[in-house]
Write the structure tokens for this entry.
Amino acid sequence: MANQLFTNVSIFDGGGKKPYSGEVLVQGNRIKEVTRGGNTIRRDGVKVVDGEGATLMPGLVNCHSHLAYTDMPTLTAMGDVPPEENTLIAMRNAKTVLDHGITAAVSAASSKPRTDIVLRNEINSGRVPGPRFRAATPQFVSTGGPWDPRQMHMHHNSFEIVADGPVEFRQKVREMIREGVDIVKLAISGDGFADHAPEDTMTIAEDEIAAAAEVAHSRSIRLAAHARSDASIQASIKHGITFVHHATHASERTLDMLEKAKDKHYVCPAVGIIFATLNEASDWGVDREWALAHRLDRELEIGCETMMEMFKRGIKVMPYGDYGVAWNPHGTDNRDLEHFVSLIGFTPAQTLMMATKWGGEAWAGDDPIEFGEVKEGYLADLLLMDGDPLADITLFQDQDNFLMIMKNGEYHKTPRRRRVSRRRVAAAE
Amino acid sequence: MANQLFTDVSVFDGTGKKPFAGEVLVQGNRIKKVARGKSKIERRGVDVIDGGGAFLMPGLVNCHSHTTYLDTSSLAEVGDIPPEEATLKAAHNARIQLDNGLTAVVSAAAAKPRMDIVLRNEINSGRIPGPRMKACTPQLISTGGPWDARQMHMHHESFEITCDGPIEFRRATREMIREGVDIVKLAISGDNNTHPHAAEDMTTWAEDEIAAVMEVAQSRGVWACSHARGDDSIRLSIKYGIQFIHHATYASEKTLDSLEKRKHKHYICPAFGAIYTALHEASDWGVTPEFAETAGFARELEVGCKTMMKMHKRGIKVLPYGDYGVAWNPHGTDNRDLEHFVNLVGFTSAETLMMATMWGGEAFAFGGTPEMGQVKEGFLADLLLVDGDPLADITIMQDKDNFLMIMKDGEYHKAPRRRRHTARRRVAAAE
């Protein structure tokens, strides 16, 4: 493909600063040049894409992704899907999220042991479209942990690997590393959805966390935790778990600990699922009464307050999470950006910085891979948006507002004309 | 989609008769009208596709397909691929078959128990492109049968389900019917180049085991196919009413007589492609010509070709295709089989294409009224538009660029495009 030059675009560079009108040149899979103003980059030998004043920004990064989840309404309904069908469903989900501008994702649990791994390999081989992907294990739970669906008289599966005792955790983490995961997910706390293991309990013992973390660290594999309770968040910090998911009930003391270690952790509250369960799940038999009985209103309220407090302390909070169940399905992920603005109170610019610059940094970890910003030398994961996302964060919820989606310098969606005749965004005037 | 009218085409209707210049109208998923000559069908309200004299024919039907085989060079290699990767590869293979004009396939064994079933369901749901498909079990074999990959000290898999004794076979068949197969596969004979004591002319099953599988299959309305190279295995296939007898190389005169008597109940697919390529084109994978000779491939091919011609003369239905999906005989090359039928066996191109279309459509119906495989009013619209005359040169089916249009069930898999040769190389019948 010839070098692609985006002209007449309003550039949101991912850093959270005010967008500016300028031009961006892509060469191969990288951003070669970024300039302010018009007619600043040579036109010969390049393909010029006139942005007509649209917003050019980095691709979105979801750091709490469940691409292998099957949009099912119950745990066992997901467990009942055999590996073959689940693989095909995961393949479709990967395309769906890329269609919505998510060009990179860190999994926060697979549905079955190998689903994430196989999907990542298939995307990397170029055979199916999908975001850059970090593959996770299923949820590691202990017997009776939040997603243990077994009955005494009968076996069932959900999206879990059950282990008890440090040696079993060690062996099963080793097994998943052998299969090729990038992320080990530990369901340390309980969850509001599980009657036998509520959200403010610890369900994995500390020696088990230590065993899993020891194996993972020794093999340079990162970890993620399901951690709603205070003790589970503390354990996550203590054992160097990179992605602390939910982190709702963090005490002052825990916030202090996290603040001290703020360069080592990312927090994804995943507010979308709580919001949808409270307000939109009655078609699946989950009515408001049920949600209130399981204290989901409290979970949402405290979670939002905690996130704002963390952000003020410089702890990295990021949007997305838990899309892939019936009432919070794949393809609606970008509602999370709106939740960050309307429920928590972050600005759209802050939210988009979290979803791009911080996301890119979180995805990369120690690997020398750079994306998430419109910056010279960075990988060309870029979106062209029809409108001004800083004025209207809901823009991302309609696929048609994506005029162009580029991943690694290649078009997933080739550039098209703006729909509204020259509705220019302020900065590009 | 509006009704589609193909004009200025040379119609090969699948029956093997000489093509005629005419017009074909498709409405919904069916062929609404077939007319001889020009300007016979009303143009109003329809999309007119000017065929430019190209060859319109029914979609091809492969009745010995291994869509889920993974183009590997050894048994253990197939077995080593986990179900997730195999599922994705199978989806890819299904598209490749349809890209090459195969609009329907009857599987002659899956790579793993659920693979065919899942692929068929995914195609039927419209979520991925692929041919109409009948889903099969893996190869049912006995311990030490041709594709038993296990070692005494270690488990291995190939593409098999191993059973011993009628009860185990009965249970395995029931299990696969529960999962949703359309057809069960019995690997009754041995095969070239497997265990020395499971050679191609040996029978690796006991008769009570065949009876057990067929009793379950027949009671549940599921069809059966057999891997049957040796005479005895062919005899047993006929005795137990196995509808698709694959290979059928070493049929004796007596066996041919009994097959002729029941010729409306059976279809034979020799599957020459894998044997031909193993003999001539497999050295890169360690299958040298010397090895192929020792393994009996030359004899297999020579005797098989003669047997197929004898069967055809007796009115027994012989069909092309089979065993594409191994490294040296990969997916996407299936249409070489049509050339093999002409060059190696000696059938005419018209006979070969009739086998691949009309007879294939009839076989795919599984005993019901055939609904596709012919360009015939009321039939399902599985149609190909071919750039050139395959009756003059059967090898043109091997280049997918020669398919100007591929339609399955009234929908375009490949939308019509102009003929490539500007000189309007019209086929004779359309002049």
About this structure: The mean pLDDT of chain B is 94. The first helix of chain B runs from residue 75 to 80.
